[in-house]
Write a structure and sequence with these properties.
The chain is an alpha/beta fold and about 325 residues long. It has one domain: Aldolase class I (TIM Barrel, Alpha-Beta Barrel). Helix content is about 30%, strand content about 15%. The protein has a 12-stranded mixed sheet with strand order 7-8-9-6-5-4-3-2-1-10-11-12. The radius of gyration is 19 Å and the shape is globular. The protein starts with 17 loop residues before the first strand and ends with a helix. The structure holds S-adenosylmethionine and iron/sulfur cluster. The site of iron/sulfur cluster has 13 residues, from helix 10.
Length: about 325
């Protein structure tokens, strides 16, 4: 039985359990599908939530019934006090207990931080890795950091931040020829591979549907190499997952564009500057920072969360001709 606050259930009956918190919009890479090479319009320092403010919003959300918190960004490990943030979030207590804490990262700071994050209460990590080739990594992220990324993945593994999920955005003519190699890398190391359809969230607004490798195409490439057995009910999880026969591994596809999973969405997002977004593609935001700095009570913050979710649309409508890409790039929303 769920003891969740009615404000976490939207008008389509979707109960929200998962809060994604962006710790910063800064990043150490410049992935082409996410950030521009230069001239990023950074959030102003004074508009960023302090750690006390961020933890307060998370506490209100967890007390309402949020059960899972994912830290993201930008690159969340660039936040100087990230270990302290994890430590404080891990101690929150909701109606069903403590939230499960995970983090999505480019892995570059994991060699320095993985053990401390684990000890502070982080359960697991999702790591972005779009290629295993150094020259291609440089083209894709505009930084020559493949070796450091691989070291970060190994550090997460050694620290016990399991299961490790590896995320790759599949792009036509860029890395689609590595779909099998990336999966084999995960099979070899005991990680879980997840391919993501590219979404219109890049800073340059250059997304082209034809450059996106579809979930169906990804699956065709995988089934040419392995026998896959589809897992049953995925609940609210964005990935459709297959076990790879003859191995311990699984592979998943997040087909956000061609097979949207909005009908079971249980996610809500808080940006690093304190704006609550009911959807990645929302055009509206709820200004929790402004409310807090204006002296709002916890009850008023909970009401604002409920109002934000009440306005949540049924779907993202990427395929609708009237679709408008959000103003913020992915790095400033929190993926
Ligand atoms: N810096 C961290 C990282 O890269 O994992 C966390 C933030 S990043 C915005 C979170 C996830 O969003 C990554 O897995 C990244 O691949 C994904 N992402 C970014 N832009 C995307 C896009 N346009 N379409 C699909 N996924 C995207
Ligand atoms: Fe940085 Fe992650 Fe965006 Fe790449 S996907 S630029 S690592 S925030």
């Amino acid at each position: 039985m769920s003891a969740a606050h009615p404000g976490l259930v939207d008008r389509f009956g979707r109960q929200h359990r998962d809060l994604r918190i962006s710790l910063t919009d800064r990043c150490s890479l410049r992935c082409t599908y996410c950030m521009p090479a230069e001239g990023v319009p950074w959030l102003q320092r004074e508009s960023m939530l302090s750690t006390d403010e961020l933890v307060r919003i998370a506490r209100v959300a967890v007390e309402m019934g949020i059960e899972e918190i994912r830290l993201t960004g930008g690159e969340p490990l660039l936040r100087a006090d990230v270990v302290d943030v994890v430590d404080r979030l891990a101690r929150l207590e909701g109606p069903t207990g403590r939230p499960e804490l995970s983090l999505t990262t480019n892995a570059l700071r994991l060699p320095a931080l993985a053990d401390r994050l684990h000890d502070a209460g982080l359960a697991r990590v999702n790591i972005s890795l779009d290629t295993l080739r150094r020259d291609r990594f440089l083209d894709l992220t505009r930084r020559d950091k493949l070796t450091e990324t691989l070291a970060g993945i190994a550090a997460a593994d050694a620290a016990g931040l399991a299961p490790i999920k590896i995320n790759a955005v599949a792009m036509r003519g860029v890395n689609e020829d590595e779909i099998v190699d990336l999966t084999q890398f995960c099979v070899t190391h005991g990680y879980q591979m997840r391919f993501i359809e590219q979404m219109p969230l890049d800073a340059g607004h250059t997304w082209d549907r034809n450059a996106m490798v579809t979930g169906e195409e990804i699956l065709a490439l995988l089934t040419a190499r392995w026998s896959l057995v589809e897992r049953g009910d995925r609940g609210a999880a964005p990935a459709q997952v297959w076990d790879i026969e003859g191995t311990e591994a699984s592979v998943g596809v997040i087909a956000s564009v061609t097979r949207p999973f909005c009908g079971t969405c249980d996610r809500v997002r808080l940006t690093a500057d304190g704006q609550l977004r009911a959807c990645l593609f929302s055009r509206e935001e709820s200004d929790l920072r402004g409310l807090m700095r204006g002296g709002a009570s916890d009850e008023q913050l909970a009401d604002a969360v409920a109002t934000c979710l009440r306005l949540k649309r049924p779907g993202h409508d990427i395929d609708d001709p009237t679709f408008l890409q959000p103003e913020r790039p992915m790095s400033a929303i929190g993926g």
